[in-house]
Amino acid sequence: MTTTANVLPQYLGSGDPALKNYFPAWVNNMAVDATVEGSMLDGVVQGADAVRSIVTTIRSLYEHQEFKFAGPYGDNGFLEDYVAKVNGEPIGCVVLVTRNAAGQTQHVVASYRPRTSLLLFARLLGERFAGTPIAEHFAASESTSQSKQGESSRRPSVIPT
């Protein structure tokens, strides 16, 4: 096995100029019981308002965001691949959105990279959501994450809407 230092990670690249004005319409079409999970969260968050709050807060913390791809995936899915910056650090994300039979956003899965940016971003989101039920899903500290890992990874938080 070899590693090559001269290969550019995708999260350091730029977006597709054709997607410059893209906005994820799925954010405004959530099922009441929509869920979100991903590499930045412990467990699952459920509820349209909670999912929308997480997504819009994430977007508000980006210094800039450029989409590399946004389009349909399978019969009921939508895929996004984008790059952004948070506190000057590059971050890349792949989002898989699954729609229900009514065409509403039912489930969102987001995978972030690199790990260092993911950890920074999770901490910032934990601070932003401090004092809310959503905060427990973002890494506040290693000991907090470890003590809640077994509990939060098994059951979703339902945030009242």
CATH class of the domain at 29-137: Alpha Beta
Multimerization state: single chain
Q: Rough shape? A: globular
Please give the radius of gyration in angstroms.
Answer: 16 Å
How many angstroms does the end-to-end distance come to? 51 Å
Proper CATH architecture of the domain at 29-137: Roll
- Strand proportion, as a percent range, falls in 25-35%
Helix content class: 10-25%
Physical arrangement of strands within the biggest beta sheet: 3-4-5-6-1-2-7
Q: Are there runs of 5+ residues with pLDDT below 50, and where?
A: 141-154
Q: Spell out the helices and strands N to C.
A: EEHEEEEHHE
Number of strands: 7
Largest sheet, strands/sense/barrel? 7 strands, mixed
Number of helices: 3
User: What structural category arises from helix and sheet content?
Assistant: alpha/beta
> What do the pLDDT scores average to?
87
